[in-house]
Amino acid sequence: MEPQEAAGAAGGGGGGAGLLELELPRRGAGEAGAAVAVAAELEARRSGETRRLVLSRRLSGPLPAGLARWFPALEVLDVSGTGLAALGAELLELPRLRTLLAKNNRLGGPGALPKGLGQAPLARSLRVLNLSGNRFAELPAALLGLRGLQSLSLGGNRLHSIPPEIQALSSLEFLYLGGNFITSIPPELANLPSLSYLVLSDNKIQSIPPQLAQLHSLRSLSLHNNLLTYLPREILNLVHLEELSLRGNPLVVRFVRDLTYNPPSLLELAGRTMKTRNIPYAPSDLPGNLVRYLSLASNCPNPKCGGVYFDSCVRQIKFVDFCGKYRLPLMHYLCSPECSSPCSSASQSSTSQSESDSEDEAIVAAHRMQKVLLG
Amino acid sequence: MEQLVQTEVWKAQTLQELIQILHRLFSGDKVSVEEVQALMESYESNPVEWMKYAQFDQYRYTRNLVDKGNGKFNLMILCWGEGHGSSIHDHTDSHCFMKILQGNLKETLFEWPGKKGTGAMTKKSERVLEENQCAYINDSIGLHRVENTSHTESAVSLHLYSPPFDSCNTFDQRTGHKHNVKMTFYSQFGERTPGATVVSQENN
């Protein structure tokens, strides 16, 4: 997050060369602040040296079109709490804007962000964008052109999903999406190579895609107040993770016995054999649907197994200490009840507990399979 | 006829004055919790006075030492980014005063877990503290979790602990399992403490 500034600093700096910061504070609760009056005041204070502009006055219309002409050196623009319903073309000419704060406004309708954002100088210069506390129901596509963006906040909006195209924001290090209505996470989120801080708290997320473990730079992951019952086993691969929040999730506490293990179909058995025995095939040898099916094989995580599975697998929950947490339920998929998962690789885990659990689990699962076959 | 003892009501006009009065209050052997709480509440937060202690970290909340209280207490400022929260923790037999300097913090009170430490912990109550309010807790009252639940605003709080302590227990809400952690300062007297970015042990 951006460094906190002192609230209530006196508004309107004096004139003169070297003026770096200009603030137009709120003028009393009742006044609407006609757009014309704001424009006139800004124009009167125009300067080629102003680097920061903070507007707290309630605006009745859009930002003045002359903004870039009056403040060509602007690096930080804060229009939070001004009631803006749209950010327009006035932004497109700011050649050096690095930080844009537009929290707590009325942004979110169509045209909330200007077209052509991806071609403007902003696309290369903007590093920090804060749109929290607005009304966005989906991540605005106009944002995706901001290649240089390092920090994006859409906290407290109305997002129902994260578009896979988010992977276009390849410089992103900080992504705040807490306080929305997000139900699932696209695996493409894992393609952000520099992501170190990811906030998904206060949403409606039911599961974490295992691909998220590919976020090698991730230092902090915030998942509190969601609908998670377990985490993917792969989360143990996040070796740089130092902060993990999980409170307010219905995480299972006791071993969850697997529901019936459906024995594999003939198709699955044939597929498994092809894969494990490395039987060669060319796309011309098989119907397209079977070629596709074979490509969906998942490797059994048991290193001693080397097997694969397609649709038929055993789900097991193992409890592992990780990242300062005690007994996190991690979901394991295995190719058969006889397979057992590798021990956790977490540094702080008390594996003795987990191991004895795993033996019990393997025995129970095997018995269940016998019941299915005999029953 | 009983003599009614008038509790002194102090008003601190500035942060410096607050610290001075605190030193006076803690100089003796006995301190009144009500007096300290009223004093802390009386100070109207002025960001210009505490800005230099308000050093934020993007990943988690920070503890910034303001005054060592001649060994009788620690006064510190905590900075909470959007969504930052603490674990459920105890207070190592000390008194804890928490005053909001900016923004809001949610305080959730919990019962101590049972002897075996199994089963989910029982929530007693929760409330949202507003600017300038001051809360008080000690181990006999219970355990608490403090969080900035805002997704748009950061929060700053002023904490007084007496006697000072540098370790406490954190509790896992699902199981009551407890874990002792050492607490560190992100900055002291406004200076960033080098090498103090220890791996967080206080995850929740």
UniProtKB/TrEMBL annotation, chain A:
One of its GO terms (cellular component) is cytoplasm. It comes from the Eukaryota. Keywords: Leucine-rich repeat, Repeat. The keyword Repeat applies. The keyword DNA damage does not apply. InterPro entries: Leu-rich_rpt, Leu-rich_rpt_typical-subtyp, LRR_dom_sf, LRR_domain-containing. It holds the Pfam family LRR_8. Signal peptide: none annotated. Transmembrane segments: none annotated. This is Leucine rich repeat containing 58. It comes from Mauremys mutica.
From TrEMBL, chain B:
There is a cross-link at residues 96-161 (3'-(S-cysteinyl)-tyrosine (Cys-Tyr)). InterPro entries: CDO_1, RmlC-like_jellyroll, RmlC_Cupin_sf. Pfam families: CDO_I. One of its GO terms (biological process) is taurine biosynthetic process. It comes from the Eukaryota. Pathway: Organosulfur biosynthesis; taurine biosynthesis; hypotaurine from L-cysteine: step 1/2. Fe cation binds at residues 89, 91, 144. Keywords: Dioxygenase, Iron, Metal-binding, Oxidoreductase, Thioether bond. Its cofactor is Ni(2+); Fe cation. Its EC number is 1.13.11.20. It catalyses: L-cysteine + O2 = 3-sulfino-L-alanine + H(+). Belongs to the cysteine dioxygenase family. This is Cysteine dioxygenase. It comes from Mauremys mutica.
